[in-house]
Specification:
The protein is mainly α. It has helices at residues 6-29, 36-39, 58-75, 77-82, 84-87, 89-112, 121-130. The model has no long low-confidence stretch (mean pLDDT 82).
Length: 131
């Protein structure tokens, strides 16, 4: 039984050894000349101004999460499209239901106003009541 996994263990050992040797070699070869400029923040060539501990609008995160959710769901359609001819009409109806569920979720997010970048304060109380 254990002999069946020997190639997996060997691959794992070689991978760990490769990472360890590479990190050790990089530590030996790199120059070690720390300076104030080198240890400072790098922001696309701009001088950092002010504190980095500022408050971001939650809308950035909400829209990013909505994008990631729908993007990951759409990725599930690619394997289905590759084997569509071989799996038949049952898979077509399954994916149609899947897309309808995605569209219902999208309509819900849109209806709640979570895709609006600037929310009207009058509508804010209404959308909170809906939730």
């Amino acid at each position: 039984m254990m002999i069946d996994f020997s190639s997996v263990f060997m691959f794992l050992a070689v991978g760990i050894l490769f990472v360890a040797v590479t990190l050790l070699l990089a530590r030996l070869v790199r120059p070690a000349e720390p300076s104030v400029v080198k240890m400072g923040n790098y922001e696309c060539g701009e001088e950092p101004i002010g504190s980095s501990w500022i408050t971001f609008n939650v809308r950035f995160y909400v829209i990013a999460l909505i994008f990631v959710i729908f993007d990951v769901e759409v990725v599930f359609l690619f394997p289905w499209a590759m084997v569509f001819k071989s799996i038949g009409w049952v898979a077509f109806w399954d994916v149609l239901v899947f897309i309808v569920v995605l569209l219902v979720g999208f309509a819900y997010v849109w209806n709640m106003g979570d895709l609006d970048w600037v929310k009207d304060l009058g509508n804010l109380a209404e959308s909170e009541e809906k939730k």
